[in-house]
UniProtKB/TrEMBL annotation:
Domain of life: Eukaryota
Protein name: PARP-type domain-containing protein
Biased composition (Acidic residues): 135-144
GO cellular component labels: nucleus
Organism of derivation: Mortierella polycephala
Keywords: Metal-binding, Nucleus, Zinc, Zinc-finger
Residue ranges of domain PARP-type in the record: 6-57
Region Disordered, annotated ranges: 109-208
Segments of skewed composition (Polar residues): 145-155
Compartments in which it is found: Nucleus
Length: 235
């Protein structure tokens, strides 16, 4: 009796060929493996493997009867790919990622046609056509394995956490830069190389008690010096 199980992983080379479309599965792209063993006692490393592009793979009944996290290799997937796998399996036997993409395309097309018809009826300009990521998702398993995360987020409802972290870092850097500019502007000297708060046009700086004593001492010394000059000058 042949025992058939499944696994998911990222391709480790470009030597595997998809059992459905007969095209090469690119290195590092998401793929699903079909493992055949003569019995459950036979080690998995001796199993006969067959591979599918993730978009070509159709969910078998056995995968709908076990928790997604128990599927071999699922734990090592990126979060976005875990969500894709979960989404496909929830659709049931025979579902595939290609079907989800096609449904999304159809929905987007219907929305665009409805918006165009409404614009013509109201005499308003036609709405700008939104750039779709369908092409990127459709070729997800034909490239280097990096899926269109924006489109995946639309289908799974998951926010692109990596982009969110980038935006947060960019905002923090911008805040620091703006703060440095404001500080530099405040400390910038006025005309003549003097600080604005010390200039003739700016508000006078109040003297401390120590500064007042020093100023009075200097004035007293200057007064005595002038008196001595005047005294000796008369002689």
């Amino acid at each position: 009796m042949v025992v058939i199980t499944y696994c998911v992983e990222y391709a480790q080379s470009q030597k595997s060929v998809c059992l459905k479309c007969n095209k090469v599965i690119p290195n590092k792209s998401l793929r699903v493996g079909r493992m055949e063993r003569k019995s459950e006692k036979e080690k998995k490393k001796f199993a006969k493997y067959g591979w599918y592009h993730f978009k070509c793979f159709e969910v078998p009944e056995v995968m709908t009867k076990i928790p997604v996290h128990l599927i071999r290799g699922q734990v090592d997937l990126l979060d976005k790919d875990k969500l894709r796998l979960e989404r496909v399996i929830k659709l049931g036997v025979g579902a595939s990622w290609s079907q989800i993409v096609e449904q999304h395309k159809k929905k987007v097309k219907e929305e665009e046609e409805a918006a165009a018809a409404e614009a013509l009826e109201n005499g308003t300009p036609l709405p700008a056509k939104t750039t779709s990521k369908d092409e990127d998702m459709e070729s997800d398993d034909d490239n280097d394995g990096s899926a269109s995360e924006d489109f995946t987020a639309q289908l799974t409802g998951e926010i692109d956490r990596k982009q969110e972290r980038k935006n947060r870092k960019a905002n923090q850097l911008k805040a620091k830069t703006d703060g440095a500019k404001v500080s530099k502007k405040q400390n910038k000297p006025g005309k003549g190389g003097k600080d604005t708060h010390m200039g003739s046009k700016g508000p006078a700086k109040s003297l401390t008690a120590v500064e007042k004593v020093i100023a009075a001492s200097r004035a007293d010394s200057q007064k005595k010096l002038e008196q001595m000059k005047s005294k000796f000058g008369k002689k």
